[in-house]
Amino acid sequence: MYLNFLTKIKNARAAGRKTLRTGYGRMELAIAEELCQAGFLDKIELKGKPLKKELEIFLKGKRPIRGFKFFSKPSVKNYCGYRKLPSIKSGYGLLILSTSKGIKNGEMAKKEKVGGQLLFGVW
């Protein structure tokens, strides 16, 4: 689940690690790619055999991850249209949501005019 994935990233950065290896999942890969494009992560590599893939994440990005705000959890799912997407830290943060076109950040969702399930905000 993406909640554990993000907690691993946050803890690894707090511990001063430069890399993190974690289990592979399509959602985790898509989230890591969005964070990498925004500058929170340096790069991502797939390691391992086809049935035992792992993500190796290089954590030294341009922007440090200071915190998360989770909008959807396993017990509560929040959905929002593209016109009502919330702002994270007055525009300094990044909103990640799951749309019908895949995992998108808030800016791309507004450009493509798609809404979806709000996952989390990061700053």
UniProtKB/TrEMBL annotation:
One example of a Gene Ontology biological process annotation: translation
UniProt GO MF annotations: structural constituent of ribosome
Signal peptide start and end residues: none
Domain of life: Bacteria
Cellular component terms (Gene Ontology): cytoplasm; ribonucleoprotein complex; ribosome
Keywords: Ribonucleoprotein, Ribosomal protein
KW Ribosomal protein (keyword) present: yes
Family per similarity comment: Belongs to the universal ribosomal protein uS8 family.
Protein name: Small ribosomal subunit protein uS8
Gene: rpsH
